[in-house]
Each structure stands twice: as C-alpha cells, then as structure tokens.
Amino acid sequence: LNNLGVTYFGIAYWQKALEYYSQAIPHLKALGNQRGEANTLNNIGVAYNMLGEQQKALQHLQQSLLLRRSTSDRNGEAFTLTNIGNAYSRYGEDQKALDYYNQAQVINHETGNRAQEADTLDLIGTAYSALGQPEKALGYHQRALEIQRATGNIRREAISLSNLGHVYNKLSQPDKALDQFSQALSIFRNI
C-alpha cells in the first residue's frame, strides 16, 4: 500500500497517494514500524500541502516529527522539519518557515548530510529573500552553490544559480543576475 502511495506521490496524484498512505498507516502501526509510519505521515503531510490544506499538512508533519524524534532518526527529523518549513512558506509565513529550516540545517550539518544541507541553505536563502533581506539570502545561496558543486549535484547547482540570479535582481545588480541565470540555463540545457 505504501509503495502505491509513493508511486502516485511521484507523479503528483496527491489525492490517490493520500488514499494509499492512509490505508498503510494502520498496517505500519500493527507491525510496530515507527520509522515507516513517520515516513508515511511525512508524505501525507506533503501531499496535503500540495493540495493546499495547510492545517492537515502541519498536523501530519508534526506527528511524523514526534515519531522521528522518538526513534532518533536525525536525517528524517531534518527532512520533516524542512517540510514543515515548506508548509509555512507556501502560505507566506516565511519567518516560521525560516525557524524550521534553521532547525533542519543544524541537524543536516551535524549529520554530514551534504545534499540536504545544500537544499536547506537554498530554502533559508529564499526565506530571507521573501522577508526582504536579499543581502542575507545571497550568502545562503552562495554556500548552497558551493556544496552543490562539491557534491556534483548538477541539477541542484542550476537551481542554486537561478536562486542567486533572483537575489541579484532584487539587489539591482542585473549583470550578475544575468550571469547566474545564463549559467543555470546552460546546465539545464545539458541535463
């Protein structure tokens, strides 16, 4: 059931994914599979967020977070904290989003999860930009780009470059913005 949910989730059939995830939860509980339950609750929360149902999203994400903490799943905890931040960000609550992203970032750094660290740095930068602090955003996007390049994640490198382009635009530096966008476009064309 959970795998069917994952399949529908992967193709953005959120409602169908929710049906299968909801059916999987009782089975995961019966098996005592708390990590699986936490993963599924996280995915339910993300699906609800994508459907525009913030309260349901946050409810399931908070349940996931509690389970992840009780099982000492630090990477999962950071992942769910990021998704809680995303739920707040989607509804313009950027300061709350930033609070969750920062918590996730501490864990990502502590656990050495470089890929998630870079992604979270980009999210922190985006939150600062939305809060009208593009100077602060710039540093986070630059750190994200450095990690993306060091880890060889080309697609995410292009996203970081694009994020930098948006920040340079906000800082009224069109030449730098164009340079970042051009680099991002070049990568996207070659992927």
Can you walk through the features of this model?
- The protein is mostly helical and 191 residues long.
- The chain contains ten helices and no strands.
- α3 packs antiparallel against α4 (54-70), α7 runs parallel beside α9 (154-170) and α8 (134-151) runs antiparallel to α9.
- The longest helix is centred in the first third of the chain and has 18 residues, at 14-31.
- The radius of gyration is 18 Å and the shape is elongated.
Q: What's the layout of helices and strands?
A:
Elements: H1 2-10, H2 14-31, H3 34-50, H4 54-70, H5 74-90, H6 94-111, H7 114-130, H8 134-151, H9 154-170, H10 174-190
Short key terms for the protein model shown above:
single chain, 191 residues, mainly alpha, 10 helices, 86% helix
Quick recap of the structure?
This protein has 191 residues and is an all-alpha fold. The protein has helices at 2-10, 14-31, 34-50, 54-70, 74-90, 94-111, 114-130, 134-151, 154-170, 174-190. 86% of the residues lie in helices and 0% in strands.
